Amino acid sequence: MKTIEQKGMYQKFPRSGKDTRVTHYCAGCGHGIVNKLVAECCAEMGLQDQTIFVDPVGCGVFTYYYWDAAHISAAHGRASAAATGVSRARPDAVTIAYQGDGDLGAIGFNNAFQAASRGEKFGCIFINNSLYGMTGGQMAPTTLEGEKTTTTPFGRDPALTGHPLHVCEVFNQLQAPVYIARVSVADTKRIMQCKQAIKRLFEIQRDHKGYALLEILAPCPTNFRMDPLKAAEFCKNEMEAEFPLGTFRDVDKGVTPEAIGAQHQASAALEVKSVPQVASCAELFGVSDGVDAPPAEDDPSVPERRFKFAGYGGQGILSLGICVAEAARLEKRHTLWFPSYGPEQRGGSASCSVVVSGTPIGSPTVEHPDVLVCMNQPSYERFVGDVKKGGIVIVDASVPITKQPPEGVKLYQVPAIQMAEDFGVPKAANTMMLAALRAFKATGLDDAHLETALCASFKKKPQLVEKNRDLLHRAEAALLNN
Amino acid sequence: MEEKTEGALPRPEIEEDSCKGCGRCVAACPKKCLSIQEHMNRMGIRPVGYVGTGCIGCAMCFYNCPEPYAIKVVKP
Q1: Which CATH number fits domain B7-74: 3.30.450.40, 3.30.70.20, 3.40.605.10, 3.30.70.100?
Q2: Could you tell me the pTM of the whole model?
Q3: B42: nearest CB among A37, A195, A377
Q4: How many Å apart are CA A288 and CA A291, to the nearest integer?
Q5: What pLDDT shows up at residue A362?
Q6: Is B62 on the interface with A (CB under 8 A)?
Q7: Number of domains, chain A
């Protein structure tokens, strides 16, 4: 019997959380696929006891949670510099730096480039997903022309922000590197080619041949704002058109650049295209500019009310908290919204605290909420014991009640996820929870203000305003009937 | 000739609580024998499941999966 399963990783990731067996990456992330391949190659070649990984800053920051080998975490952009030190101090070891667009392509470009130019004896794996993933999808040097990111909302304009940086081609101008290649993880064929390339990278390091660079095109569904399959398609069609795959150099196998110091094409002088004008930053980013809500007024008769919203990232937990805080703001209450989430944008645990009060608020953190809203099991188990006596817990009906709330706490099970799907808008589970908060009078805020706040949260997507308003009413009616 | 029993065929084994429901394996399976299920896992995500027949043990699902422990392929 043969089982094809993960090799080279820890069985559990206790540094991430007790009994955790999932990575921190979003659904469909290219990092996850590459992490698996790297661990597998390292284990299959029997190099786990010899390998020292240098971890970056970026989405790949936690590879030391997963890979069963030695690790050093470098400062942002300094993985190649740290790897230089490691490989010189331990010439017997296999040193591998794992870096991303920001780490290698931007802040750390000089570190990586000079290390390559010196021909340091380590391998560098460079994940190119065409933007900064961890910080929320800003433009990277590798962003494609016309690609929309949070800092190039109209698409990247080369006249303003330059052309995409071709790291492999630039490094291929150097004398010293022995291996330079670009692969992708967009589909099965490419993943298997990627595995071969990673193996080659390890081989070169095992034999201490010299500097090797492997660029891997990886999809980032979250920041491409696409589902995982469309993101892989984007990676294959758009990114490969800009960054062609191939082995640029493998000196031992006779693949060398035709001419080192090849022609530099002088590009015509660029003219800055006109930048579309918007009235204000608030409009551009779709946030309220503070004009449409009055400042808070003191009213000591209104007691402090503390809320906790929890679930996994992507369920709209943070937006739900903003809605309640915004409604409080419309009501001239003092209010604070305080999010808590990991480096991942989807899939990890996310929660936020909201405090509403008639008097100025001391701390935005909520240890003992009056109202707890939970959208999944781990968050329910974590927070239910903290709810104050006389408080309310609203939990999605898909969550098994493995733990009873403390005495004097009311528990409501609301089929929010199911209702949103039944209404044909699976993403609106948070709107269903808002309907539940209204139906159970849990917020102490005016119903009209909650509705206005919900509509305001869709300012950027006006087509969704009426839909969500309608869903709110239908869900509330359904909840009150039951 | 020996008749192949159900247990003797290759099959994917899915750890539902590790699945993030991205669907890469469903798209990659050449025999289309994986699908997203109706029920939810611990995280509130609909995990992938094996339809029960058709697996040829190629492990394309395993290599397309970004999660280390969500899916493995057993070849008896």
Answers
A1: 3.30.70.20
A2: 0.75
A3: A377
A4: 8
A5: 87
A6: yes
A7: 2
